[in-house]
Design goal:
29% of the residues lie in helices and 29% in strands. The chain is of the alpha/beta class. Strand 8 and strand 9 form a beta hairpin.
Length: 156
Amino acid sequence: MAVEIGTKAPDFELPASNGEMVKLSDFQGKNIVLYFYPKDMTPGCTTEACDFRDKHESFAELNAVILGVSPDPMNRHDKFIEKYDLPFLLLADEEHKAAEAYDVWKMKKNFGKEYMGIERSTFVIDKDGQLVKEWRKVKVKGHVDEALQFIKDNLA
């Protein structure tokens, strides 16, 4: 079931890198950049996380919080955050419940092998909890700037 622009974003609760259980609805009143990525410490995911890190202040100035979600366990998130000095929360979706709610848990192929995994995707949720923008099958280069520009143009 796909999520739709203009509808309430599916809420979920996941363990977060601040040591707490975090609900999407905890951030009501802020714009949310919810990005799903396949795996900590891989080249594309590292580039994307570092791009979000480098623009973190710009998002914050627009009342936007960044949340990164992958199926990695919290101890791997902790290493990723420490190694790259990430200033935003990473959420551990080990049972891929949030990924399924946002329809980003997909059959993937790599070197002839098929497996289930995260399709790199980003969602912007406004301060009222409405889904206002989605990018699926994200190409990392330039993506964070595009997300920032969308918030400037539409939610600032």
